[in-house]
Amino acid sequence: MTSAPSDAIVASAATLLERIEAFGLSADDDPLGFETRLADDHGWTLGYALAVTQEYRRFLALTQVAGGPVSPSPDVDAAWHLHLTRTVHYKAFCDAVFGAFLHHEPARPGEGARHRAMYGETLDAYRRAFGASAPPPAWPRPGGPVAPRVRPAAAWTVPAELRPGHRLAVVAVLVAIALGLLLRNGGLLDPLQEVGPGSFLAVALLATSLLGWRGLRANVPPPHATARDVLEPYEAAWFSGGAERMAMTAIVALTERGVLLAPGKAGERGAHPPIPLNGAVQPRCLHPAEAACLGAATDGAIRFTLACLAMQPLARQVERRLVVAGIAGDAAALPARRARALLGMVAVLAVEFERIFHAFGTSHRIGFLVLLALAGTGLAFALARRAARTSPRSERALRPLRLAAGRYRKTTPVGQALAFGVALAGGAAMADDLRFDGLQQQVNALSAGVAERRVRKGRGDGDGSSCSSCSSDGGAGASADGGSSGCGSSCSSGCGGGGD
């Protein structure tokens, strides 16, 4: 394949990439709409969708400068397919950026070898145009395995009334006791009385062990599942502190860009002043989290408690996306394997309780049976526990970010480095930056207020109106008041050529 000299390709690709980024792939009032839809359609994190979208922009530039047909990787091709479905935007984009419609030609049966060769030539053109190899996993190596789409594991939704605390486990044990009483009164298990206690205990112990192994064994994700576990700052912030940490990260990012003025610091007994908006700066290319914070502004300023409350709907969206991607635990559901094991444990406990009830008033020894029933009850509580926010997969995704955040603290972080630092380390990341003294003070006051309300609730004299991430009684008179991402010729391209 003939191509222009490398320096000409580099210059042409850079110019095209600027035009592509300037036109954008999303509406002006929804700058991450394309990436969000891409993540939702394919079960990716938003961080990975952002990475794939950037590679899609580069692929579009390659269609014009490579000097021949090019072929996208499967994930880049997924972004292209999404863009094609937005027909009005896609046509306007092609006319404005390329001056002609960029056609998509899917691979035909029997053209696998041709498209594998085309994909290899595309990777060579990428190196010439951008001075570096195409990054995996968005661009898998030719002939290598292609990560399949990861689908969420089957799960059983837990009714909202049974989610708090150990309520589901308590209900499961009470159901087992009730079933045991019904079985005892109905005499349905009387034939089991002929089974010796030793044999019954052995079978019950084996059943309990199998159910525990089945329901509690670790589900180690395959390597291809973690290749796409790329987090953006607000996803990392959700893992670290939910809506409150997301609001903190957004305020720091907006302040650094001059959209917000530096938060004022209160005196020893003074009320915390709100965080004023900078009327001289027009906010552009706002991340949805930043837009949510600005949407909570009143009287030209942001109060931190209200910013937290405004962030909660977006935090729930982030949670749902991370759950679907398989990187966060779903507190509203039980994995199907654990749910089936819990049902089995209820059945085993019902039989054990029936034997215990039957033995009352007799000379039968039931000490070992009671101990086994207690062990089964403990297993039921373990099986019914709510999923943790983090998982082994999320910890693997967060580990390199935390290491990088530690390195950021040795210098003065800016831009995304600062956003990730605050997302992961909270106030510690801005401890040495005088611009954020006021915000740090408000965050500490809010955390202290939530802790105090929890103590009062534990004593029975609180109203229980606070939540784990921010106060629900915030307002203009609350004591804790206070006030990232970029704005993606005819092409005979194979559809997903990297995967053949």
Structure description:
This protein has 500 residues and is an all-alpha fold. The chain folds into three domains: 6-148 and 488-499, no CATH class; 155-218 and 332-383; 233-329 and 394-459. It contains 17 helices and four strands. It has a two-stranded antiparallel sheet. A two-stranded antiparallel ribbon has the order 2-3. The longest helix is centred in the middle third of the chain and has 24 residues, at 233-256. It is globular.
Q: Any idea what the radius of gyration is?
A: 29 Å
Strand-residue proportion = under 5%
The rounded distance between the terminal residues' Cα atoms is 21 Å
Structural class: mainly alpha
- Summarize the biggest pleated sheet: 2 strands, antiparallel
Q: What is the chain-wise order of helices and strands?
A: HHHHHHEHHHHEHEHEHHHHH
Total count of strands: 4
Strand order of the largest sheet: 1-4
Q: Which bin fits the share of residues in helices? A: 55-70%
For the record, the count of structural domains works out to 3
Q: Regions with pLDDT < 50 over 5+ consecutive residues?
A: 1-5, 461-500
Number of helices: 17
Instruction: Tell me, briefly, the overall form.
Output: globular
Can you give the mean pLDDT?
Answer: 80
Topology:
Blueprint lengths: L5 H18 L9 H10 L3 H20 L8 H12 L1 H11 L14 H19 L24 E3 L9 H20 L10 H20 L6 H4 L6 H24 L18 E2 L11 H8 L5 E2 L1 H21 L8 E3 H24 L7 H17 L8 H17 L6 H11 L11 H23 L41
Antiparallel strand pairs: 1-4, 2-3
